[in-house]
Amino acid sequence: MSPLTPPLSQRLDGLRSSAIRDLLKLTARADIISLAGGLPDAELMPRDRIARAADAALTDRSRLQYTESPGWGPLREVLAARESTRLARPVPIDEVFVTHGSQQALSLLAEVLLDPGALVVVEDPAYVGALQVFRAAGARIEAVPLDADGMRLDVLRELLARGARPAVVHTVSNFHNPGGVTLLPERRRELAELAETYGFWIIEDDPYGELWFDRPSPEPVATYSPNVIRLSSSSKILAPALRVGWMVAPTRVCRAVELLKQGADLCGSALTQQIVTDLLADAEWLAAHVDSVRTAYGSRAKALVDAVRARFGDAVVSTDAAGGMFVWVDFADGTDTDALLPAALDAGVAYVPGSAFAVATDYSHAMRLCFTTSDAETLGRAIDRLAGAHAAGRG
Amino acid sequence: MSPLTPPLSQRLDGLRSSAIRDLLKLTARADIISLAGGLPDAELMPRDRIARAADAALTDRSRLQYTESPGWGPLREVLAARESTRLARPVPIDEVFVTHGSQQALSLLAEVLLDPGALVVVEDPAYVGALQVFRAAGARIEAVPLDADGMRLDVLRELLARGARPAVVHTVSNFHNPGGVTLLPERRRELAELAETYGFWIIEDDPYGELWFDRPSPEPVATYSPNVIRLSSSSKILAPALRVGWMVAPTRVCRAVELLKQGADLCGSALTQQIVTDLLADAEWLAAHVDSVRTAYGSRAKALVDAVRARFGDAVVSTDAAGGMFVWVDFADGTDTDALLPAALDAGVAYVPGSAFAVATDYSHAMRLCFTTSDAETLGRAIDRLAGAHAAGRG
């Protein structure tokens, strides 16, 4: 008898790698200036400070042991203190849970908050990492479009009025990925009120909030209601390799996430968690460091937006890039950004077409540009190349 | 209208923290010698070597960036080379996948291999971390008892003959947690044959294989069939805080796990993965280091087993502790180890009662003892205390 090869689970049917990941593999060519990535700039990461913190952490052998599933105690204390300031209320340590990047918070929350078939409202264009998780959890998805002031609450209201009862509404409240926009303060309050009226959770996904360029980002949505679960991360302000994200949520949510974290991977790394503790607790150093990242990204963002407006004029509408890592460009002249991509790659520039982030809205005339890893001059050259490809296409 | 508080998912019903975790909280008192834990000894972890590796890793800023979901390339290469030696065949890098400890491999594999309601065969007593994951995935569980030579294949054969068609059989092949025993070489071959006859996956969970005391552990089950997915980890030989485990599996399994890892937490830490790469690649240092851990654990294991046999004589049957971290003690005199526990704690010694690991077999007369974190003299004192409590109970 020939050996039987066992099958894989049917759960995998329909799961596929994100289009963006596949695109990034194509655009790694040395002659391409990639605005398609979504990475923070490694050159701005505080290598020396991290090395000092690693050294200090390793003087204590207990940092090499397993740690608690909700995170190393001193890290949760530092985070509770920071979030108390941010949320203008005392946040107890029981409401702070450390995850392996905020992606892990999303995936554990999908299990904790969603019954199969539950409704999840996402923004359109959507943060793809969240969308994947909600889909994998078997959720039904409704999409609410963004405008220049963030999620369109008029559309959400209409959805609720028509009888939709979401379990979760997901929002990237500050400097949206990919949309670049920030949720208006009035809308934050209104969204929180809707959550309490209709009894849904808000996941406020906020990895970029500290990366503001001109003025601090508005009060978190979590300021307005206990129905808000707030996520953030050290990846964009310190370094992704530390894999330290965190969640501020009601105690019962944290307890449920703890049960799942035990099965998912037992616990995080006491070593990288102590490094993050050390850096976050060093307030003066941290302020100066984050400031230097803001200054660098701010000037790159400005250079990119200026170049886009100079080269494309009325043919596009672009976000202002007031913070974060991305500029969203909408072609008013009917350009199809999927169709333009091969010519752009030939001309030596890469971007992510809007269609990669679209849920229910047609974003085939839009694109996401990332400004974090190129200097102003390179960004200008990238937009020259893009304009060349665009002009040739319209020839 | 009063604000509505949203509910949590019904999926959480029935999920609870493991009895062992709750017990460990009780036994953290300073006057108790705990043989209840399951941790490697932090004093034996190579702190200085890790500090050097961290320093070296941090000379390259790219180590601070996100890394690939299947793991940092050079780590997968080192692991592929090591596993090629262990499995006596060339293991390509595509068959190596790095996880956040081997617990994450278990939880991702449960999704990749199991449809809801699928049958999983576990050993009895069971590794609780695996049992939790399979239960959370909605699997039906059948348990096959251990004897002194590992999983009883006569019982598994009988199960298969009665028509049971498992999707997965899980085995801790070397120095079982909690059972202490090692699967006999003939049984490994036979188990692999059954997997090919009936078309099931074997998950060979092998965190302890390198911690042998007198002679190397037998050839892995994975030597005998491509239906075997082999898990191991750096936690027991280097340090748990690095959170580096790995899996050797057919390419299609690795690809499916990669899709899920993207949603679960994007990627591991390039920093701790480079530290592990550095240490595993330093063959001479590693051999000496692992040897020193073996020597220390081996003498502790012997001291514990000698003390148990000296104090309890014919009242118990104990494993020999030929490797790993645990001794399993079976009371032949009818002692109920759950009932004995309060008196043992009063006498200043803690253990985990067999019932905590039991699936379908009555292990109420057994206990798991961990010898890793106490010296020989302390282990002797612990067994004196246990014998005192036992004698008083039988008064």
TrEMBL record, chains A, B:
<dbReference type="InterPro" id="IPR050859">
    <property type="entry name" value="Class-I_PLP-dep_aminotransf"/>
</dbReference>
<protein>
    <submittedName>
        <fullName>2-aminoadipate transaminase</fullName>
        <ecNumber>2.6.1.39</ecNumber>
    </submittedName>
</protein>
<dbReference type="Pfam" id="PF00155">
    <property type="entry name" value="Aminotran_1_2"/>
</dbReference>
<dbReference type="InterPro" id="IPR015424">
    <property type="entry name" value="PyrdxlP-dep_Trfase"/>
</dbReference>
<dbReference type="InterPro" id="IPR015422">
    <property type="entry name" value="PyrdxlP-dep_Trfase_small"/>
</dbReference>
<dbReference type="GO" id="GO:1901605">
    <property type="term" value="P:alpha-amino acid metabolic process"/>
</dbReference>
<dbReference type="GO" id="GO:0047536">
    <property type="term" value="F:2-aminoadipate transaminase activity"/>
</dbReference>
<keyword id="KW-0808">Transferase</keyword>
<keyword id="KW-0032">Aminotransferase</keyword>
<feature type="domain" description="Aminotransferase class I/classII large">
    <location>
        <begin position="32"/>
        <end position="386"/>
    </location>
</feature>
<dbReference type="InterPro" id="IPR004839">
    <property type="entry name" value="Aminotransferase_I/II_large"/>
</dbReference>
<keyword id="KW-0663">Pyridoxal phosphate</keyword>
<comment type="subunit">
    <text>Homodimer.</text>
</comment>
<dbReference type="InterPro" id="IPR015421">
    <property type="entry name" value="PyrdxlP-dep_Trfase_major"/>
</dbReference>
<comment type="similarity">
    <text>Belongs to the class-I pyridoxal-phosphate-dependent aminotransferase family.</text>
</comment>
<dbReference type="GO" id="GO:0030170">
    <property type="term" value="F:pyridoxal phosphate binding"/>
</dbReference>
